[in-house]
Design brief:
single chain; alpha/beta; seven-stranded mixed beta sheet; four-stranded mixed beta sheet; binds ligand KE4
Length: about 425
């Protein structure tokens, strides 16, 4: 596979951009290869600057649920652009998108549009603290909620102590209000809530974890979180930046039937443009300035072009509920192909799949939390990544990311991938 143009661009980018990329995972560090610079994308495929065309299972880490450059979305954005790119003033599109979000997820009685998932989660936590008057938050090991200081943490030494920074540049004082629990481990949550009774403002959770690879909630885990937060007057925040409009039009909260107090959204809600959102119960969201005392603002919040892309995307998903069943069927076929690969090759592979989200962990499994996920053989994953790339299939360049199926992946493309996964070549 020719990659000289990507190599040249990468070399030059390294001089101007840290790591040559604008987000670390894109650097292909975990798979030991030169990152591919993408030239264009359409439907289920991306094409790099050397003309290599790939079947894309990254989909920009989630936004690409309709496939790349969906004609209706592109047309709507093109039309919106000629009316002006940004006004810094309210528009009817923001109200239209807010109504669509509420209609899809009724727990979101009021919503603020922002520009990234990081901003959405950071703001939701601030609102939860403002609403409860408490400082502590609980997050889960292996869950990722963007790069705001208080969330770039790892568990402290003792189980019940506050977290420590997981990044240089984050002062320890910024993480002393963050506690870390274990995903799918109710006792770890109970221990923290009992150790800090009435002091925890919020529990923030990925209702399906997708940043340690895909790890679904075990039966009753989300309902347990709902119960214990209610008992302690703690705000339950579902970080649905990935699962929102992905697991179904109503997201994980509809899929699992558990209602959070606040929800964060991103990726799909912006249709591929820089937009995210946070929202929930009106009594909580009315804490937000200018109505309430919790400040949050943004120059490009609710940007008219981004809201257009989001509205066009959600309109298509709303009009086609059958898409979710189709994507789930394809996700199951891919999961089965990985299991067949494991049987045929005697390779330790554990697959978690929920709807159009899946991850193959190169470990015997079961993978149900951070510890079991990180027992994976990342070298085996890197070899699998290289095999797929050489065969024209682009999967996440990291064991700890998800594989995304889109509406645009055809049955023929899924079958081709399954044959490749099962080692039957093309
Ligand atoms: P952004 O700030 O990257 O828009 O969103 C942060 C975020 C928040 N919550 C969840 C559950 C997320 O998955 C993310 C971001 N996801 C990663 C992929 N796992 C983005 C990819 C990247 O960092 O380049």
């Amino acid at each position: 596979m020719k990659t000289k143009n990507s190599e040249r661009l990468f070399e030059e980018s390294l001089k101007r951009i840290p790591g040559g990329v604008n987000s670390p995972v894109r650097a292909f560090g975990a798979v030991g290869r030169t990152p591919l610079f993408i030239d264009h994308a359409k439907g289920s495929h991306i094409t790099d600057v050397d003309g290599n065309r790939f079947l894309d299972y990254v989909g920009s880490w989630g936004p690409g649920i309709l496939g790349h450059a969906h004609p209706a979305v592109v047309e709507a954005v093109q039309r919106a652009c000629v009316d002006g790119l940004t006004y810094g003033a309210p528009t009817k599109k923001e109200l239209q998108l807010a109504e669509m979000i509420h209609e899809a997820m009724p727990t979101i009685e009021k919503v603020r549009l922002v520009s990234s998932g990081t901003e959405a989660v950071m703001s939701a936590i601030r609102v939860a603290r403002g609403y409860t008057g408490r400082d502590l938050i609980i997050k889960f090991k292996g869950n990722y909620h963007g790069h705001s200081d208080g969330l770039l943490v790892k568990a402290g030494s003792a189980a019940l102590t506050t977290a420590v920074p997981d990044s240089k540049g984050v002062p320890a004082s910024y993480t002393q209000n963050t506690l870390v629990a274990l995903y799918n481990n109710p006792d770890s949550v109970k221990g923290l809530m009992e150790a800090y009774p009435g002091q925890v403002a919020a529990i923030v959770v990925e209702p399906v974890a997708a940043n340690m690879g895909v790890v679904p909630p075990e039966e009753g885990f989300l309902a347990f979180l709902r119960e214990i937060t209610r008992a302690y007057g703690t705000v339950l925040i579902f970080d649905e930046v990935i699962t929102g409009f992905r697991l179904g039009y109503g997201g994980a909260q509809q899929y699992y039937g558990v209602e959070p107090d606040l929800t964060t959204l991103g990726k799909i809600v912006g249709g591929g443009m820089p937009m995210a959102a946070y929202g929930g119960r009106a009594k909580i969201m009315d804490q937000v300035s200018p109505v309430g005392p919790v400040y949050q603002a943004g120059t490009l919040s609710g940007n008219p072009v981004a809201t257009t892309a989001g509205i066009a995307t959600l309109e298509i998903l709303r009009a086609h509920p059958e898409y979710y069943g189709e994507m789930e069927r394809k996700g199951k076929q891919l999961a089965e192909a990985f299991r067949e690969r494991s049987r045929k090759r005697g390779e330790a592979i554990w697959v978690n799949q929920v709807g159009s989200l899946l991850s193959a962990f190169f470990t015997a499994g079961p993978v149900r939390d951070y510890g079991s996920a990180t027992s994976s053989d990342t070298g085996a994953y890197a070899r699998y990544f290289g095999q797929m790339l050489e065969n024209g299939v682009y999967v996440a360049p990291s064991q700890f990311e998800a594989m995304f199926v889109s509406v645009a992946h055809t049955d023929e493309e899924i079958q081709k991938t399954c044959r490749l996964l099962a080692g039957d070549g093309d």
